[in-house]
């Protein structure tokens, strides 16, 4: 009887110990990561044809002379930082990338679009080797071009893991100019006449004359339209912002933001709060800041100025 009771106590203790270990394992278990974010339907996605792997080799020495030597042999001195605060002592790696590859990407995408796109960066011992020392997803943070020749001088990358929140200057893509009520650009050539050229700063407004005997339609950004007193003359789009800064999850950085001008009339504007983006993106500027506005002068204003 005593032996049976002792065996029962030992069995209960073992069950208790097993339960305690299971509870401890449950406590020590890593919390479940949230599912990765994805692009939503109707929003711009990165073009897969530019999903290129940037090849790089490590560098051990920095400095002006070393950088100049790198450029002479067709390489661009570059740096990879650890997310946003890498410049303050993060996981920094000196690398060099191929000049031709970076120049090709910048020429095809444009500077703003290059700086808002993720790339896979493969670091190897040399460019001829297939060995990969490190492979990491990066976002180009800074691109330094020569002022006279636009040659790529250096590139700064930051690591972009899935959990990262990155500040990105997302470029704007304007559409709907051809149907915008405030940007009617069609002018019948037979109704055009020679007028003076008016210049305000770098903006030139030109009157039109008939180029030949055909009744063609001339399209341009600014034109003179002969109509009633309240019709607009020389309406044009005043682009105030080319990019807008957002705090973006790394997995859904938009290649650009669509700006629809199809219903914009003269005198109306689009502000940052009007832009349609993924709900996970956080605007880092005031939502009331203007992005663009349709400008123009009226016939009555032209006559008053005379």
Automatic annotation (TrEMBL):
UniProt entry tagged with the keyword Ribosomal protein: yes
What do the Gene Ontology cellular component annotations say?
ribonucleoprotein complex; ribosome
User: What is any one GO biological process for this UniProt entry?
Assistant: translation
| Family matches, as SUPFAM superfamilies | Ribosomal protein L25-like
Q: Which residues form the Large ribosomal subunit protein bL25 L25 domain?
A: 55-157
InterPro entries in the record, alphabetically? Rbsml_bL25/Gln-tRNA_synth_N, Ribosomal_bL25/Gln-tRNA_synth, Ribosomal_bL25_b-dom, Ribosomal_bL25_C, Ribosomal_L25_dom, Ribosomal_uL5_bac-type
Which chain positions lie within coiled-coil regions? none
What Gene3D superfamilies has UniProt attached to this entry?
Answer: Ribosomal protein L25, beta domain, Ribosomal Protein L25, Chain P
Every copy of the Large ribosomal subunit protein bL25 beta domain together lies at 234-297
One GO MF term: rRNA binding
What Pfam family is a match for this entry?
Ribosomal_TL5_C
Keyword Ligase in annotation: no
Protein's UniProt name:
50S ribosomal protein L25
